[in-house]
Design a protein that fits this description.
alpha/beta; single chain; Rossmann fold; 10 helices; about 45% helix; binds NADP nicotinamide-adenine-dinucleotide phosphate
């Protein structure tokens, strides 16, 4: 088993994830895994970074596929005995003018952004080594969507005692409510992406709390963040930040020094903790 440190970035064949891998290859003192659900797209991205003189490694990972997540888990366990840095970056968003029925958009978006990210955490967080860093890429849209929730839902999502099971039930309820066209009556905002990212931010707060309870001495720091508005296939060419600029906050959180004890369990934007 190797003593080399290891970092994994989900959904990193393009966009912000690729830029995070680029920055980690330059700054992280260990192996950096570019992962992609499609090996062809992943290998092409590895080749692109190799042309820049960088040496990322590759592993397949589809966060919608539990078998794929578990294959990566087993690989990391066997080759490295764990994991030092995990960046949950993979995500999807329907375009504003997409005509797919809202209930389908809700199901598909929540499946990847919330349930897929959660499954990666369930399988990989137990592998995190002492002083490990976990970064869940959420969005400022999670904050605005929270503001669009009923007072009752806002209270639940801001609660310091909400459990992961309760959060899963709420995310499941959102999808069910969209199918019955009652989601707005039930206090949800009219944004599937926004609700999925509420899920990612709240999940991060819960996971950080659990780390405090169960692994206090291990100095693991886990945060959610917004990369900003970034020119990628998701956000389009009018966005204000380049992918490398969008990578700055996630990379800052991934490389928090070993003597840092904060931020932890926070929502961070522009390297600054934001109120939730
Ligand atoms: P992007 O260019 O569309 O890239 C998304 C990446 O996620 C792609 O590599 C995609 O792979 C991957 N992905 C999607 N579903 C996946 C799955 N099931 N398994 C594994 N990988 C999967 O988007 P981006 O703008 O870089 O977004 C990266 C993250 O930042 C997302 O979580 C997004 O919500 C968040 N974010 C972006 C912005 C922005 O302005 N761009 C703002 C706030 C937050 P394929 O190539 O195979 O589709």
């Amino acid at each position: 088993m190797s003593n080399v440190q290891v970092a994994v970035v989900t959904g990193s064949n393009k966009g912000i994830g690729l830029a995070i891998v680029r920055a980690l290859c330059k700054q992280f003192p260990g192996d950096v895994y570019l992962t992609s659900r499609d090996p062809g797209r992943g290998q092409a991205a590895v080749a692109q970074l190799q042309q820049e003189g960088l040496r990322p490694l590759f592993h397949q990972l589809d966060i919608d596929d539990l078998q794929s997540i578990r294959a990566l888990r087993d690989f990391l366990k066997e080759k490295y005995g764990g994991l030092n840095v995990l960046v949950n970056n993979a995500g999807i968003a329907f375009k504003v003018h997409d005509t797919t029925p809202f209930a389908i958009q809700a199901e598909v978006t929540l499946k990847t952004n919330f349930f897929g990210t959660r499954n990666v955490c369930t399988e990989l967080l137990p592998l995190m080594k002492p002083y490990g860093r976990v970064v869940n890429v959420s969005s400022m849209v999670s904050s605005s969507a929270l503001g669009g929730c009923s007072q009752e839902l806002q209270q639940k999502f801001r609660s310091d005692t909400i459990t992961e099971e309760e959060l899963v039930q709420l995310m499941t309820k959102f999808v069910e409510d969209t199918k019955k066209s009652v989601h707005q009556k039930e206090g949800w905002p009219n944004t599937a992406y926004g609700v999925s990212k509420i899920g990612v931010t709240v999940l991060s707060r819960i996971q950080a709390r659990l780390l405090n309870e169960k692994r206090k001495g291990d100095h693991i720091l886990l945060n959610a963040c917004c990369p900003g508005w970034v020119r990628t296939d998701m956000a389009g060419p009018k966005a204000t930040k380049s992918p490398d600029e969008g990578a700055e906050t996630p990379v800052y959180l991934a490389l928090l020094p070993s003597d840092a004890d904060a931020p932890h369990g926070q929502f961070v934007s522009n390297k600054t903790v934001k109120p939730w």
